[in-house]
Amino acid sequence: MTAGPLPSFLLPLRARVAQWAGVEADAFAMALINEYRPGSPIGWHRDAPQYDIVAGISLLSPCRMKFRPYVRPGRPSSTGSRRRIATHEVALERRSAYLLTEDSRNAFEHHIPAVSTLRYSITLRTVRS
């Protein structure tokens, strides 16, 4: 399925993020805007494999992004049957941005615990070549 072009109101933001990431603006071929109401978490995940760089802009309220080593489904974890826990945590302040590249993108999965106040995020992704 083919999506239409990015809305024009996102183009200046995409250009700034691309400059920061060191890629052409057109490399960011996908955009997603999410609303997270109080009590909404984002479960543990790693972005779909067809995407490469993941850039996020956190809006309206702060949150925490936690990371843990990624374990491919069906592959035994080095922790055995113990529950895997976060090994890294980043505070995402309101109006902050982050880039997931290289190991943070590929060797780890991430999640955001339930937020206490309304939060929005804009996620931009490049496509793997």
How does this structure look, described?
The protein has 129 residues and is mainly β. It has 2 helices and 8 strands, in the order H-E-E-E-E-E-E-H-E-E. A 4-stranded antiparallel β-sheet has the order 1-8-3-6. The chain has a 4-stranded antiparallel β-sheet with strand order 2-7-4-5.
List keywords for this structure.
mainly beta, globular, single chain, four-stranded antiparallel β-sheet, 129 residues, 8 strands, 2 helices
Helix content percent band: 10-25%
Please report the total strand number as a whole number: 8
| Structural class estimated from helices and strands | mainly beta
Read across the widest sheet, the strand sequence of neighbours is 1-8-3-6
Percent strand equals: 35-45%
As a whole number of angstroms, the C-alpha radius of gyration is 15 Å
Mean pLDDT: 91
Q: What's the story with the biggest beta sheet?
A: 4 strands, antiparallel
Outline:
globular
User: What pattern of helices and strands is seen along the backbone?
Assistant: HEEEEEEHEE
Beginning-to-end CA distance, first to last residue: 18 Å
| Count of DSSP H/I helices | 2
Poorly predicted ranges: none
Offer a concise description of the structure.
The protein has 129 residues and is mainly β. It is 12% helix and 41% strand.
Task: List the SSEs and their pairings.
Elements: H1 11-21, E1 28-36, E2 42-45, E3 51-59, E4 63-69, E5 88-92, E6 96-100, H2 102-106, E7 108-112, E8 119-127
Antiparallel strand pairs: 1-8, 2-7, 3-6, 3-8, 4-5, 4-7
